[in-house]
Amino acid sequence: MRQRTTRTAFAALAAMIALVASACGTASTSATRDDDVIKIGAWHPLTGPLASFGIPEKAGVDAYFKSVNARGGVNDRTIDWIVKDNASDPQQTVQIARRLVDQDGVVAIVATNGTAQTQATFPFVLEQKKVPILNPLGGDASWYEEPRDGLFGLQTLYEDQAAALGEWVVRDGAKKVLVVHSDPTAFVNVSKVIGPAARKTDPSVDVDRLKVKFGTTDYSPVISKVRAARPDAVVMILAAAEAATYLKEAKLQGLDTPTYGYAPVAAQSTLTLAGKAAEGVKAVQLVKSPHDDDPAIKEFRKSMAKYEPDQPADFITLWGWEAAKAFVEVAETIKGPVTSASLTRAFEKADAVDTGVGPVLSFSGEQHLGTRDVQKLVARNGRWESQGDFFTPPKRD
What we know:
The protein has 397 residues and is α/β, with parallel strands linked by helices. It is 45% helix and 16% strand. It has 2 domains: 34-156 and 292-366, Rossmann fold; 159-285 and 377-391, Rossmann fold (3-Layer(aba) Sandwich), CATH 3.40.50.2300. The protein contains 14 helices and 12 strands.
């Protein structure tokens, strides 16, 4: 009898403990945090050879999220953007992804950096944990040819940038085009798109390619070959530093062939390194010029000056700003808890998302890349100036 009474007492005590624990759980700080905070994560190269991209991109994202939190957050929820340094290493990135999802409890990866690095996390983040990756900086065509659950991007692919250049040079009247490109496969693949795109506009146009070893610092032999080819226009598929070296050598040798470039060429560093040799160069970009006078760009410059004054308001910070702003525009449409699932559903229905600094974005269940559009720019007096509106390049074969 005593044993039975003891068991009954223990059972009652256990039930009471469970009830108290349940009540405490409902009002716990983690439950409050889930209601009041949107916890998201990212990785950026904050050290190593690509830190010159990672640091300013992070600053652009930070500036926008800080400005949103200052005005009350997203539907009264504060954004907690947790960023870790991956030094551009895919293996480190996978470990970072595990910490962000399993330990930090993020509901999404937002505005992260790196193509190979982000792709390495797909099996764990997208497939195993069902955590969406939203507005990554980087990517290639294979990411979006078939929609991947939870992956949504806003960066116009390099191949589409090349298609835009092929059309642009022909519409400017070029009949003979030379593409000067670096030798790594990524540059070669982009360079191959220009010819077919140009011939869609004018089947008679002649497009040839000139391969240059990556890291070349002496462009005098390259300019000699360009001069011998006698093109009407040159398209540069080069890194910014090499594009600047090309332009300086071309000016030195008196070569004034009209020159075009894709988004990596349209960087402030190109103008800084090339100086007056860059005057008149044309290029396409993912966003408007950070020197434009429209209200959205002014908001960007003001926010950078207030929240990230140590970083310039340039293209790289603007890429980050756009990715953050697009995320907020979509997240604000969510009624109820902001979860991995609700964010994925919101992006699948996000149509006509207008950040004001980049192309209007449209997503759907079948279309996870929000845009193919690019902005035309021209270099004048040490600045890139926007030319007209965003436009859609011809479809690639």
